[in-house]
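Write out this protein's structure.
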Amino acid sequence: MEVEIPTEHRAPKVEARAWRWHDLPAATAKPLRDPLLAVNFLLLAVGAACGPLLLRLYFLRGGSRKWLSSLLQTAGWPLLLVPLGFSFSSRRRRRSRQGDAATASSGVFLMTPRLLAASAVVGLMTGADNFPYAYGQAYLPVSTSSILISTQLAFTAAFALLLVRQRFTGSTVNAIVLLSVGAAMLGMGSGGDRPAGVSGAQYAAGFGMALGAAALYGLVLPVMELSQAWHAARAGSAALTYTLVVEIQVVIGLTATAFCAVGMLANNDFQVSFRH
C-alpha cells in the first residue's frame, strides 16, 4: 500500500484498492473515547437491539404490510439534518472569523457528485435489502432471524476480499465457520421453532429471505467502503470527516426510503394505510 505524504495544498492520495479505514488522515481518525463517536455507537447498539423486536411486534399484533415496515427502517433519515445544520452553521461562522469570504459562502454539502451518485446506489441497495429483512421478520422468531442476519458478517468478509482486497485473518475465518455452522443447524432443524399460524412454506420463505437480506447487506458495506476509497483517492477531495459521513447517510436513507415508497405504491399500501 502506498500513501503519498500530504503537502500544504494537496490532499493525501490513497490507492483505492488498498484503502483502509485506518489509512485516514490523523485529523479525521477520531479516537473511540470521543464523546460524539461514543453517542453514535450507543444509538447504533440501541437501534440494533430494539429494531428487530419492534418490527416483530408489529407483525405479531396483526400487521402485514411488509413494504411499510421496510420503509420505516430508513424513514428516520430527516433527523440527520439537525446535526448537519449545526455543522454547516459552525463551519460558516468559523470561516467568517478567519476572514475567508469566498469559503464562507461555499456550498452547504461537502459531497462530490461522484460520491453522491455512489451513495445513491448504496441507498437503492439498502432499500432493496429492507424488504427481505422485513419479510423474514414476518415469519421467523426474533432469535432465529437475528442469527441468520448475523451471517452478514461472513458475506461482508467475502465481498470485502473481492472488492477492497481485505485479507482473511484467523479470527475472520473462525467467525465465518461458526456463523455458517449456526445457519446450517438452523436450516436442518427448521420448523421446530415455527411460530403459531405460520405455514411451512411461509417459514421456509422467511428463512431464505433473511439469508438473502444478510447476503445483500454483506455486499452493501464493502461497496460503501469502496466508494469512500475512490473519494479519498481523488486529489482535492474533502476529508472523510464526521459531517461528510452524515451527508452520506442522509443520501442513503433518502434513497432507500424512496425505493420502499415506490414498493408501497405498487402494493397499494398507501390506500390501505389511509383506510385504517
